[in-house]
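Notes from hallway chat w/ T.B., transcribed later so I don't forget. T.B. wanted the structure written out for a chain they're using in a teaching module, and asked if we could keep both sequence and structure tokens in one place. Agreed to drop them here.
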Amino acid sequence: MSITVGNMLIPLQDEASIDEDMSNPEIIDQRYIIILVNPITNTVYLINAEGKPKKPICINLTIIEEGIKNKQLNISTVTYSYHSMLDDQEIDEKWLAIRDKRLEIIQDIIEDDISIENFLNASRTNPVVKTISKEKKCSRESIYKFVYTYFQGGRRKNSLLPRFDKIGRSSTSKTKVGAKIDGKSIGIPATDDVKENIRNALNKYYKNKKKQTYQHAYNKMCDDHYSEQVYNEKTGGYDTVHYDDNKKPSINQFKYWARKLLDPVEASKKRLGVSQHEKDFKPILSSSDYFIAYSGLLEHRFWST
């Protein structure tokens, strides 16, 4: 995987390998998002991947390349929050207005790589920020917050959307997450892409003669779409690690949409075979009575797995 904007750098060395006096400024001791790569100056600009976004740092590109080569660093793709991946037509107009206002304020800073690098290399009192603050009537603190949030979001415009957990969620399937557990909502909105992932997982891992459970199909879906490869120092290989609960559909969401997307008769034939299905669920009168007499029995059998 290449060193590109939006990817994440993950340190693999243990804490004992880090200089106690921190005399080596190139050491990466936490996860960082790549925000700019300049092969001419041989530099990479990074911002912390977790927690409140902080001032970006600059690292020598060669150091990063050698770290990856020597398995001191791993580079990984990032799964950004669900709302940062939505199309404009799927987002509330009020939220779009807030996002676009923030983009307008910082546009001169993020216009292109040159503008971004000039901002990153500016002195403590950045004249561009000072000018924008005066013209847009926006505090310098807010400007830095918007820019750093934009960087931490992989330079995606939707990273400037207001946080859903701060402003509440609507009840539509496009924004509604799963049920609360211990007072916290888990899961992600059931967008068309999410439902398609669930449908594919059901077709691939559930509707077959192996007679696997929903939990198995759900775990395999997470392997395919909601996970990352994390280096295992003990084995020397990479383990598949599922994303946190608020970055993937919950098992309850999976079961809910499985009930809506699955045809119980078709699923039964796939799992049991046509002959066994006809034997177990043979209609008493005729095919016209099939769904009336047996749909409830089929649904009970399959929804309980």
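Follow-up for T.B.: The chain has three domains: 8-76, 82-168, 185-303. Might be a good example for the class.
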